[in-house]
Task: inverse folding
């Protein structure tokens, strides 16, 4: 280890050469090319956005939030999830989970940075936002609280990571706990962005602010399996197996709770008979993305866990990949389903029926920037593994 | 200082859409079907073709309801949406960040993106145009051939709108959401 600027311990051999130096296995080559392609898409997408502004997106008056909002939520949920998993060891003192703390906290930093990158190109005027968020804060706005708290959260996560790198566990614990609390507050505020929408009865209420915390924890565990799977090339030692078995058991409980929550949400939505809510719920359960969410994020991982109570970490790695695809659909569905019902102001063009459901499919630019966010996230994480020692130090 | 509102004798509406045109012309609203501050809503005739009940068709002119408790104002992260001194819900385009939260929060679908400023725009009761010139009517009211709209100060007991609301039954759209709209539909 060498000591870099600001007393940050950096790996001795960290350089551009070390970044380019990786095992040339077929899967690594595919990953490297995919990440480079995604980064190229980010540049292309941003270029197209800068030329055409929001016209490059398929968002409309009736459906103002599109794929990039869903992807932003996907990344910040991932970040909060990583933060919760990382806190199990270094904040709450569960010894079995300490070995993933540093890696998870670093993961929380790169995922939220990817989320901020995507949202910067979704918000029409990000610089104005930075200025007027401070000068004329809208304290009744859930977006204001969410954005401000996430900014603070990122700061605390970076400070916590700094102390973890320096093995100063006492200070890491203080900033970790503060960051966790601020992150949970930010994340539930993100849920309340939807929960406060009285005009959209399918989302309105307390459900999303609480559900977001639950799904963040689930996402964090999926991601833990993925990063540990890559770290150990699916060849886990006993200590890691113990960690992953513990995480799998927690995951089994969390997914069961999620299924219970979702079942009751849908049952009350569908059979509560509330105008605008019941028909939307019926529409949702007849949509393909809903089944993608349920099967990929809930059924497959839960079956894998139940098979032998989480004792198959390799199988859980693959189930977690399926889970993350399902989590993406979960975020997409949340955003789309909130807006799918027209506001029924009797608007329609002459000689045509008013729209029954609002249709939306993301544009190429939205898809490119979203995939670019993923590429950026993976690239930053990879550089982090080359620069820092993310394993537990003894 | 006033508390502006509007009463709509909507059953008189003939769907000529002169109000939509006048609004666009007076306030420089962009062309295009999506870019509108006001609109004439219409339901579908009842019955099966060819036995359609033409008399069942009703028109409902609408726009921003200038709510007393506007959800769009509450959710704005930078206070770009604000109540002006006449209780009109306005947007300060210098502060708008185009997060589109207000568009999702408005129960009346009354907001759209102005592509020239890339900020959210909406009805202002002609505050920047006709009212700024000292006139006392809005463009949509002034042009309406069947005098559907009556604009005025709700705090002035002698105003025409106050008189109408005293003497005629009326309802507000989506009043159950607690937005306290200042657009009143006369029955």
Result:
């Amino acid at each position: 280890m060498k000591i870099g600027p600001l007393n940050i311990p950096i790996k001795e051999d960290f350089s551009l050469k070390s970044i380019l130096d990786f095992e040339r296995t077929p899967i690594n080559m595919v990953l490297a090319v995919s990440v480079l392609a995604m980064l190229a898409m980010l540049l292309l997408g941003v270029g197209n956005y800068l030329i055409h502004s929001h016209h490059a997106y398929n968002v409309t008056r009736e459906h103002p939030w599109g794929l990039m909002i869903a992807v932003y939520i996907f990344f910040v949920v991932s970040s909060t999830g990583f933060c919760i998993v990382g806190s199990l060891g270094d904040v709450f003192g569960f010894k079995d989970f300490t070995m993933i703390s540093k890696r998870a906290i670093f993961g929380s930093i790169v995922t939220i940075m990817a989320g901020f990158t995507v949202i910067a190109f979704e918000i029409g005027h990000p610089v104005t936002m930075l200025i007027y968020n401070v000068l004329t804060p809208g304290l009744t706005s859930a977006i204001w609280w969410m954005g401000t708290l996430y900014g603070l959260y990122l700061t605390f996560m970076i400070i916590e990571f700094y102390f973890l790198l320096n093995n100063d566990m006492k200070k890491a614990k203080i900033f970790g706990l503060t960051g966790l609390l601020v992150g949970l507050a930010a994340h539930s505020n993100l849920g309340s962005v939807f929960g406060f929408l009285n005009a959209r009865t399918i989302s309105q209420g307390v459900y999303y602010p609480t559900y977001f915390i639950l799904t963040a924890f689930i996402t964090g565990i999926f991601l833990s399996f993925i990063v540990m799977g890559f770290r150990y090339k699916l060849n886990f030692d006993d200590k890691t197996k113990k960690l992953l078995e513990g995480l799998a058991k927690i995951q089994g409980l969390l997914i069961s709770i999620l299924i219970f929550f979702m079942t009751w949400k849908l049952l009350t939505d569908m059979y509560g008979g509330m105008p605008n809510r019941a028909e939307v719920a019926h529409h949702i359960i007849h949509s393909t993305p809903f089944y993608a969410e349920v099967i990929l994020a809930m059924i497959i991982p839960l079956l894998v866990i139940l098979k032998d109570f989480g004792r198959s970490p390799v199988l859980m790695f693959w189930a977690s990949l399926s889970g993350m695809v399902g989590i993406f659909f979960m975020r997409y569905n949340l955003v789309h389903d909130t807006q799918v019902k027209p506001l029924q102001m009797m608007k329609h063009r002459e000689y045509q029926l008013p729209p029954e459901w609002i249709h939306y499919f993301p544009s190429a630019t939205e898809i490119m920037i979203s995939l670019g966010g993923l590429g950026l996230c993976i690239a930053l994480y990879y550089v982090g593994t080359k620069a820092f020692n993310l394993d537990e130090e003894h | 200082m006033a508390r502006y509102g509007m009463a709509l004798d909507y059953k008189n509406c003939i769907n000529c859409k002169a109000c939509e045109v006048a609004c666009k012309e007076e306030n420089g609203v962009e062309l295009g079907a999506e870019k509108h501050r006001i609109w004439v809503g219409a339901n579908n005739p009842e019955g099966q073709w060819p036995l359609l009940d033409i008399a069942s068709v009703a028109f409902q002119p609408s726009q921003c309801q200038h709510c007393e408790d506007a959800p769009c104002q509450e959710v704005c992260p930078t206070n770009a949406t604000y109540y002006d001194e006449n209780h009109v819900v306005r947007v300060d385009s210098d502060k708008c960040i185009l997060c589109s939260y207000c568009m999702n929060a408005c129960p009346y679908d009354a907001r759209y993106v102005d592509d020239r400023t890339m900020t959210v725009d909406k009805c202002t009761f002609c505050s920047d145009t006709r009212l700024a010139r000292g006139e006392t009517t809005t463009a949509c009211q002034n042009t309406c051939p069947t005098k559907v709209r009556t604009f005025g100060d709700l705090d002035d007991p002698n105003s025409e709108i106050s008189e109408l609301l005293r003497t005629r039954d009326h309802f507000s759209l989506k009043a159950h959401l607690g937005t306290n709209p200042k657009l009143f539909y006369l029955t």
